[in-house]
UniProtKB/TrEMBL annotation:
It holds the Pfam family GFO_IDH_MocA_C3. Residues 150-263 form the GFO/IDH/MocA-like oxidoreductase domain. Keywords: NAD, Oxidoreductase. One of its GO terms (molecular function) is nucleotide binding. InterPro entries: Gfo/Idh/MocA-like_OxRdtase_N (IPR000683), Gfo/Idh/MocA_domain (IPR050984), GFO_IDH_MocA-like_dom (IPR055170), NAD(P)-bd_dom_sf (IPR036291). It comes from Frigoribacterium faeni. Residues 20-136 form the Gfo/Idh/MocA-like oxidoreductase N-terminal domain. SUPFAM superfamilies: Glyceraldehyde-3-phosphate dehydrogenase-like, C-terminal domain (SSF55347), NAD(P)-binding Rossmann-fold domains (SSF51735). The keyword Protein biosynthesis does not apply. The lineage of its organism: Bacteria, Bacillati, Actinomycetota, Actinomycetes, Micrococcales. This is Oxidoreductase.
C-alpha cells in the first residue's frame, strides 16, 4: 500500500463549455483524425475545409461530416461562419496559412511544429498580437489528462526539485517512399515532425534550455534522419531527448527529482498512464475513460475554445514562447548534425 494521492486532472471538459465553429486548412490524415475526434467527443464542430484542390476538400467534407468546402484558404478564412482555423498543412505551409487566417481575424490552432524556424514563430506571434486573436501550437499532448496531472505534481513539489528529464520519440520510416516525411521542400525529417514531442516533454519537465549539445545525421538533401540532444537550463537542470526515422522507440519519458521520479508507461505522445515513485511508495495514475490514441486531439480544441471565451490571446499551458523555445532547440540540434 502507498499513501500517494494524485491530484485531479485539470483538462477542459470536452462537453458543456463554450463552442467554436472550426475551419480546417489541409484535408490530410491528421485533419481527418482531428475532425473525427471533435465530432465524436466534443460540442465543437468543424464546419468548413479548404484545399487547393476543391475535389479533395469536397471529398473530406463528405467523409467527415463537414458542411462547406473551399478551394483556397483565403476564401474559407473570409467566411463569417468560421470562428477559428486549424492549420493542418505541411510544416512549410504553417506560416503562410496561419497568416492568412490571422489576417482575416480568425483564431488559429497551428499543427506542430508552430513553424519551421524561430523567425517564422516570431512572425506568427507578432501578427496574432496585432490582430488581437489567439494563436496556439497544436502540441496536443500538453492538453491531455495525464499531462495536466504531471504538471500539478511538479508544481506541488511531489518529486522535489527536478534535476533530469529524458524522452525518446522515434518511428521508423521508409526513406525511399515519397511523402512529406522525406521531402525537404515540405520540412521533412525527424526533428520537426516527431522530435518536437521529445523536446517538448523535456522542456515541459525541466524548463527552457539555454545550452545544447547534439549529434545526429542528415541526408545531403537536408532531411534529418536522427538526433540526440542534451540540454541545460539556466538553473542547471539537465535533459536528454532523442528522435529518429531509422527506428521505432517506446516513446517513454522520465522526470527525476531530488525526492522522487515520474515515468510514462506508454508512448508519451498519446493519452497514457504514468508511475510516480517517492519515499512514500510507488503508484500508477491511469484513466480508462480518456479517449484513446488520436481521439485525444479533442482536448486541445476544447482548451482553445475555453481560452477564447476567457479573452486569452496565448495558451496558459503551452505558450508561443514555449513553441519558440522548441524551435530554438531544433535549430541548435540541426546545426550539429553530420551529413551522411
Amino acid at each position: 500500500m502507498t499513501s500517494l494521492i494524485f491530484p485531479t486532472a485539470t483538462t477542459t471538459p470536452l462537453r458543456g463549455g463554450p463552442t467554436l465553429r472550426w475551419g480546417v486548412i489541409g484535408p490530410g490524415e491528421i485533419a481527418g483524425d482531428f475532425t473525427d475526434a471533435l465530432h465524436a467527443h466534443t460540442d465543437q464542430r468543424v464546419v468548413a475545409v479548404a484545399s487547393r484542390s476543391l475535389d479533395r476538400a469536397e471529398a473530406f467534407a463528405r467523409g467527415h461530416g463537414v458542411d462547406s468546402a473551399f478551394d483556397s484558404a483565403e476564401a474559407m478564412a473570409a467566411s463569417p461562419d468560421v470562428d477559428v482555423v486549424y492549420v493542418a498543412t505541411p510544416h512549410t505551409r504553417h506560416l503562410p496559412d496561419a497568416l492568412t487566417a490571422i489576417a482575416a481575424g480568425k483564431h488559429v490552432l497551428i499543427e506542430k511544429p508552430l513553424a519551421t524556424t524561430t523567425a517564422e514563430a516570431d512572425e506568427i506571434a507578432a501578427a496574432a498580437e496585432s490582430a488581437g486573436v489567439l494563436a496556439m501550437e497544436a502540441l496536443w499532448t500538453r492538453y491531455l489528462p495525464h499531462t495536466t496531472v504531471i504538471a500539478q505534481l511538479l508544481a506541488d513539489g511531489a518529486i522535489g526539485d527536478v534535476r533530469l528529464a529524458t524522452a525518446d520519440v522515434a518511428w521508423a520510416n521508409d526513406l525511399s517512399a515519397p511523402g512529406r516525411m522525406t521531402d525537404p521542400a515540405l520540412g521533412g525529417g525527424a526533428l520537426l515532425d516527431i522530435g518536437v514531442y521529445a523536446f517538448w516533454f523535456t522542456q515541459f519537465a525541466a524548463g527552457h534550455p539555454v545550452e545544447w549539445r547534439a549529434t545526429g545525421s542528415t541526408r545531403a538533401d537536408g532531411v534529418d534522419l536522427d538526433a540526440a540532444v542534451v540540454t541545460r537550463t539556466a538553473d542547471g537542470v539537465l535533459a536528454s531527448a532523442a528522435t529518429s526515422l531509422l527506428a521505432t522507440s517506446p516513446g517513454l519519458g522520465t522526470i527525476a527529482g531530488s525526492a522522487g521520479s515520474i515515468r510514462t508507461l506508454e508512448n508519451l505522445v498519446f493519452p497514457a498512464s504514468f508511475e510516480l515513485a517517492t519515499a512514500d511508495g510507488t503508484a500508477v495514475w491511469s484513466d480508462p475513460t480518456v479517449p484513446a490514441g488520436r481521439r485525444g486531439l479533442a482536448y486541445q480544441a476544447a482548451a482553445l475554445s475555453s481560452f477564447v471565451a476567457q479573452g486569452l490571446r496565448d495558451s496558459p499551458l503551452h505558450s508561443l514562447a514555449d513553441s519558440r523555445s522548441l524551435l530554438a532547440t531544433i535549430e541548435a540540434t540541426r546545426a550539429s548534425l553530420t551529413v551522411v
